[in-house]
Amino acid sequence: MIITRAKLIDLARREAEARGAAGDVLSAYLMGSVVSGEPLLGGTADIDLVLIHEADPPAAREMVPLSAEIHLDIVHHGRALYAQPRSLRLDPWLGPAISEPVFLYDPQHFFEWAQAGARGQFFRPDHTLARSRSLLETARARLPHPPPDQPELATLLQAALDGANAAALLVGPPAAGRRRLLDLERRADALGHTVVADGLVRLLGLAGQDGRAPSAWLGAWARAFDDATVLTTDPRLAPCRRAYHLAGYQALVEAGRPDAIVIPLLLIWQRTLRVLEAHGRLSEHRPAWDEALAALGLDPPSLPTRLLELDGYLDAIETLIEGWAARSGA
Fold first, then answer.
1. Which domain does 101 fall in, by range?
2. Are residues 155 and 66 located together in one domain of the fold?
3. Are residues 290 and 308 in the same domain?
4. Is the pTM of this model over 0.85?
5. Cβ neighbour number for residue 22 with a 10 Å cutoff
6. Which of 187, 203, 262, 288 is deepest in the core (most CB within 10 A)?
7. How far lies 169's CA from each of 119, 135, 175, in Å?
8. Domain count within the chain
9. 157 in the same domain as 12
10. Is 209's pLDDT higher than 70?
11. Nearest-angstrom CA–CA distance, 46 and 98
């Protein structure tokens, strides 16, 4: 099968129509890389499909493999989430997603109504500023006070990404997925500020990755994933996600951007190891993880210093945002 954006949209539409015919699905739309026009990486893609249900859905998320290279990443929402569409335009994640989606299925025009309410004055500077400030507040709320002796790596990663995306929201949707660092670099260029991406690179130790270390980390993660996927029902660790991650990251390394794989790899690798730890299977996979963190300066002894640097990074992001607000009259 020749994979094109149009083919991916058609596959999603068929799934949405089948779900609508068989159950309580009101509406369906696409978000993510298929919408932005860059779905393929390393010959693989996921299709980010949102299904809106009349009632609360039985699950929040599921993966549906369509081939060895393609799968549906389905997010389930209840109708109630869209009851106040004007408030959704201030949501830093859902607002951008429903502002510029690909419509798939909406026989009762429910999503059309919700989207119209959310998109009204969506790009007004004060609404853009509200979304940005909201995500920055989320980033700051993740930081423990007082700082602990042993901070959590997950806290550092997520707060740093929230901070970067708070700035990214000023010029587009937040960055996610396998290309998030590349997307953040584009947002930084649009803003004319290097702090967004360059600060993140320094904070997370991404500079100077020549490809050899990240390539070795990929193999270690894949072996851990193979052991973990049979132990969990977490959709993010479904078997179809293996090729999606591995092929995408290998493509970035081959393109000369090994630094771009580190953030998404750390996130999925940590999730993988948590499953193994819960089942007493961590010991054989821990050394490779520890070596990767040490190489990045993200090992436990280094994290208190990184946490202090993160506070400074968020201060720099706040200065950028407030400068944008002053210039935009928000």
1. 5-119
2. no
3. no
4. yes
5. 8
6. 262
7. 15, 9, 9
8. 3
9. no
10. no
11. 18
